């Protein structure tokens, strides 16, 4: 075989491998989700199972729920996986998704100094917040329009307390759950957290759970495919494959099997 033919065959081989590589690279999706699902370690547990089964790679953009929904509105994600039912239903009503599917739940907990200077300990979140307000004890708010922030504001409203960053005891961080917990640890203040992120948080300092078990602290997660009618470039087939898997028996069992310090962090509840 002459040199010209060898070069021709080599060039064809390179082209073939390049085409295969491009095809493989295209089999991926972007999921905009929350810092709680990312920082709790759930995605590190979940995604390798999905990727091995389907060959679809998942890039997670972990931000607050409000920002995650805005990413979906812009068409910069294929799937949105968040935890603010009211905001999610609005997202659907605006036509950015055709439907919202419930996936799993856990709960929020109120974290505070072990000494509990505001005497909040118990299972009533609104009563606890009233006591924090009355005592002017330091409270750390994420202040980032996340699902956790939205829940916190609902609890303050239910407690009949108006909060503002102008109040010296009420501190807004504008950050994700992990960094906000770091701030609370550094200032020895109170903070609302999802339980899963708290379980994985190591820099606890003198903090502990002071309020848990209130039915109001229920924390539901939902998933939505960004509407291809709004954004034609959305990877509908791959995005739907992710949703179908996460609500399947295998996906739900994988969620249930994720534990931190021996405790189950999320509880699957997709409707069959």
From TrEMBL:
InterPro entries: ABC-Tungstate_binding, PBP_domain. The keyword Signal applies. Coiled coil: none annotated. The keyword Signal applies. Residues 1-25 form the signal peptide. Residues 26-250 form the PBP domain. It comes from the Bacteria. Keywords: Signal. This is Tungsten ABC transporter substrate-binding protein. The lineage of its organism: Bacteria, Pseudomonadati, Pseudomonadota, Betaproteobacteria, Burkholderiales.
